[in-house]
Amino acid sequence: MNKSMFLFVCLLSFVAVQAQVGDPVPDPIVQGGLSVEIEDVFQIPASSSSNPLARINILKTSKDNTGRHFVNDLRGKLYVIINAVPSVFLDLEAVRSNFVDSPGLGTGFGMFEFHPEFQSNGIFYTTHAESPNSGTPDFTPPISATIRLQWVLTEWTASDPQANVFSGSSRELMRVDFPGTIHGMQDMAFNPTVFSGDADYGMLYLCLGDAGVTLGGTPGNTQVFNSILGNIIRIDPLGNNSANGEYGIPADNPYATAQGDTVREIWTRGFRNPHRISWDLAGDNKMLIGDIGERNLEEVNIGIPGANYGWNKREGTFLFDFQTRDFVYPLPSNDSTFNYTYPVAQYDHDEGFAIVGGFVYRGTAIPELLGKYVFGDIVRGRIFYVDSDSLIMGQQAGISELTLMVNGMPTTLLDIVGESRADLRFGLDEQNEIYVLTKQDAMVRKMVAPITGISSNDEQFPADFILYQNYPNPFNPSTTIRFELERNGLVELNIYNALGERIGGFLEEAYPAGYHEFMWQGDEETSGVYFYSMKVNGQHQTRKMLLMR
Predict the structure, then answer these.
(1) Terminal C-alpha separation, the chain
(2) What's the rounded Cα separation, in Å, for the pair 519 and 493?
(3) DSSP 8-state code for residue 389
(4) Whole-model pTM?
(5) SS (H, E, C) 462-524
(6) Rounded to the nearest 5 degrees, what angle is found at the Cα of 221, between the Cα atoms of 218 and 226?
(7) Cα–Cα distances in angstroms (integers) from residue 256 to residues 245, 263, 274, 432, 479, in the given order
C-alpha cells in the first residue's frame, strides 16, 4: 500500500470511530413512583433437571368464558391451568416426530393462539420448529443458505372445545425454511379489539425474525420483499388463496396485489426479532411491537401496515452497519429519503439486553397502572412502563421502571428468581390482569396492588449510590470502576459481555458510606463492549465500557 492510500484508509478509520455513538440513550431508566406486588400463582412442571426448569413462553386464555389459562413450554407441552393446577392439554413433541427444541434460545414450541370463535369452532394455532428437510417449505430464503430449522404453523380443531385434554384433528398451514437457529417464528395473535364483520376480524398476525442472517453471512435475505424473514405477516387462516391453498391472503394486506415474487403475506417489515405484539384494548387500539435489537437498542414500535422499520440498515433511531455491529452511528443527512419508521420508545444496553413486549394495562386491580404499557427486559428481569398515550409516531416516550414488591418490601425479579438471568415473559388473563413468567424457576406470578399502597406521583426514588463511568475508557487491559455510597450497604458488582452473559461476580461485600474504587482486569477477555452492573440496597445501576486490544 502506497503512502497516500495508507493515509486515506487511516482517515476513513478515524472518521468512522469519531462517528460511533458510544451511549445511544444517555439518560438512565429510573424507578418512576409506581409499585406492584408480585404474587406467586403456580409453577409449571419442570421439563429439565437444570435451569431453566421449564421454558415457559406466555400465558393466554382460551376466549371461551371458562376461565381457563394456558401456558406453553418450548420443550413441547401446552398446559391448561384450572384453579392454579397445570395439566397437559397437548403434547406437541409427542405428535410431531420431527419436533426439535434445540439449538437456539427460542427453538421448540414457539407460540399458540386461540381463534376468536374457539368456543364454537374449537380452532387454535401453534408454531413449532422441526429439523431441516422435514417437509416441503412454502418459503425459503431467496439467497442460498444452509437451512438449520423449519418452522411450522399448524391449525388444530378440538372435537370438544371444553375438554381439558386435546382430541381432534390438525392441518399444516405454512412451513418456512430458516437459515439460522435464532429469531424464528415468535408471537402470533388475533386483533382483540375488532368484532365480527370488521375487516381485521379473524386475521392472524405472525411475527417472523430474521433468523440471524444479517450476521450469519446472507444479510440480503432480509429487508427485501421476496423474503418472509424479518417481517410481521397477516393471513386469513380460514381462507385458501395462498400459493399452497391452505390459508388466505387478505385483500387489504399492503402487498396483496403485488406482482412478481413479493411475499404478499407481509403486513409490515424491517425487523430483527419482533418478539411480541399486543394491542391497546382502549384508547386508539394501537398495535405495539417489542423488537429485540443487536448490540445497542431495544425498541417499542407502533404497528403500521406497509411500514419499514429499518433492520438491517437501522437499529433504534440510529444507523446500523453489520460490519461493525458493536456500534451504531448518527442517521445520515438524507435519512428521510429512505422512509423508515422509527420506534416510539427505546432503551440501550446500559439498561438491559433484550426487550420482551407486554401489554397496556386495562385491568382493575391496580388503578394507578391504568393506561400504562408494561414491558421488560428478558435477561435482567427489569419491568418498565410508559404511558400508552405518550407513544406517538415521531417522538420518543420516556421510560420508567416499575418497583416490584414482595410482602410489602421492594425487591427485584432477579432476587425473586435467585438467578443471574430472569428469562422474563408476560401473560394476560380474561380480566386483563398481567402475569409475570420466569423460565429459570418455571414460575407464573401475578401483578397485584401493593400491600402498602401505590404512590401515583411522578417523583423518582432517590438513589442510595452513584456509579461513575469507569476510567480509562476505552481501556486495555485494566480499568477503574468508581462508586459512591450515600449510606452503608451491601454492594454487588457484576460484569457482563455484549450478549448479556455474566462473566463474573466481582464484588459482594458490605461497604461503608463514601467514595470507593475497584480495579477490573480484562486480561482474559476479548475486545468489545462490556457492562458493569452494581446493586446496592435493592437498587441497580449499569454502565458501559469498551475494551480495546
Answers:
(1) 24
(2) 12
(3) G
(4) 0.84
(5) CCCEEECCCECCCECCEEEEEEEECCCEEEEEEEEECCCCEEEEEEEEEECCEEEEEEEECCC
(6) 155
(7) 15, 9, 22, 34, 56
Pairing of strands 478-485, 465-467: antiparallel
CA distance 205 to 194: 14
Total length of the chain: 549
The H-assigned helical ranges of 187-277 are: 213-216
Q: Are strands 400-406 and 31-43 parallel, antiparallel or unpaired?
A: parallel
Contact 398, 390 (CB under 8 A): yes
**Residue spans of alpha helices (H) in 61-144:** 92-95, 118-121
Q: Cβ distance 280 to 288 under 8 Å?
A: yes
Instruction: List CB contacts of 219: < 8 A, sequence separation 6 or more.
Output: 213, 312, 322
Query: Cα(291)–Cα(472) distance, rounded to whole angstroms?
Result: 33
Domains of the chain plus CATH, in order, are 31-36+55-448 (2.120.10.30), 463-547 (2.60.40.2550)
Q: Count other Cβ atoms within 10 Å, centred on residue 323.
A: 7
Helix (H, G, I), strand (E, B) or coil at 428: strand
C-alpha cell at 248: 388466505
The neighbouring-strand residues paired with 238 are none
| In the block, residue with C-alpha cell 443458505 | 145
Question: Which residues, listed in sequence order, are joined to residue 425 by a DSSP beta bridge?
Answer: 437
What the block records as the C-alpha cell of 121 is: 369452532
Whether omega for the bond prior to residue 312 falls within 30 degrees of 0, making it cis, is: yes
CB 121 within 8 A of CB 108: no
Handedness of CA 211, 270, 428, 355 (dihedral sign): positive
Cα–Cα distance for residue pair 356/316, rounded to 1 Å: 15
| CA–CA separation, 121 and 5 (whole Å) | 70
10-residue block means of pLDDT along the chain (549 residues)? 42 50 93 94 96 97 94 98 96 97 94 98 98 98 97 98 98 98 97 98 98 95 98 98 98 97 98 98 97 97 98 98 91 97 97 97 96 98 97 97 90 92 97 97 95 41 74 86 89 84 81 90 84 84 81
- What does the alpha-carbon distance between residue 123 and residue 120 come to, in Å, rounded to a whole number? 8
3 state SS of 454: coil
Q: What is the pLDDT of residue 15?
A: 38
Of 480, 478, 455, 483, whose CA–CA distance to 470 is shortest? 480
C-alpha pair distances (Å), 141 with each of 136, 230, 273:
13, 11, 16
Query: What does the pLDDT read at residue 458?
Result: 37
The set of residues, in sequence order, having a beta carbon less than 8 Å from that of 386 and lying 6+ positions away, is 300, 345, 372, 373, 397, 398, 399, 400
Cell matching residue 536: 446496592
